[in-house]
UniProtKB/TrEMBL annotation:
InterPro entries: AhpC/TSA, Thioredoxin-like_sf, Thioredoxin_domain
Pfam families tied to this protein: AhpC-TSA
Listed name of the protein: Redoxin domain-containing protein
Stretches the record annotates as Disordered: 1-21
Ranges where the Thioredoxin domain occurs: 6-165
Segments traversing the membrane: none
Length: 179
């Protein structure tokens, strides 16, 4: 069984998902004055590692914002699960749910089936991170198959700070054509 992958430098797909407030959010479309977006895909309410990571990400929002990077988190959770999860989250960025299996496949995510009804009631994505640049292209990505793989946020924001400095002329990496 193989998954499709988004390739660095490719267009990030326009995927619409419902936010916790019922509004629609388009992934990869930065909000406000931001021109880049960090899309964090998380497993869902059932994952304590995800809850901890999302709360930690809140501490970095200002540093991302200073670099013109908008933050958004998305899962496959239902509106009810999303709202229940918000009770254990202290976020300062939008959160969305309702990611469909087809959308997960479009993003090239690893998808898991719950081990039991105690875990959750639907297939869910494993963690992934996509940094979408001002041209709507995948600048940086990390797709994991388990909840234990997460980027170090200091290293990630430091890398974005380096990339965003015009004098560094840092290209999108990993684009070598194997054809």
């Amino acid at each position: 069984m193989y998954t499709r992958k988004l390739h660095p430098g490719s267009e990030f797909p326009a995927i619409q998902v419902p936010r916790n407030d019922g509004e629609t959010l388009t992934l990869g479309k930065p909000q406000g004055e931001h021109d880049w977006q960090l899309v964090v895909v998380y497993r869902g309410k059932h994952c304590p590692i995800c809850t901890k990571f999302l709360n930690k990400l809140t501490e970095y929002r200002e540093r991302f914002s200073a670099q013109g990077v908008d933050l958004v988190a998305v899962s496959a959770d239902s509106q009810q699960q999303l709202n229940e999860h918000l009770e254990s989250l202290d976020l300062n960025f939008p959160i969305a749910g309702g990611l469909t299996v087809e959308q997960m496949e479009t993003l090239g995510l690893f998808i898991s089936t719950p081990r039991s009804e105690k875990e959750t009631d639907h297939d869910f994505p494993e963690p992934a991170f996509f940094i979408v640049n001002g041209e709507g292209k995948v600048q940086i990505e990390e797709v994991a198959n388990a909840p234990f793989v997460r980027p170090d946020l200091d290293t990630l924001i430091g890398g974005i700070e380096f990339i965003r400095k015009p004098d560094n002329h840092y290209p999108i990496r990993g684009t070598r054509d194997y054809g």
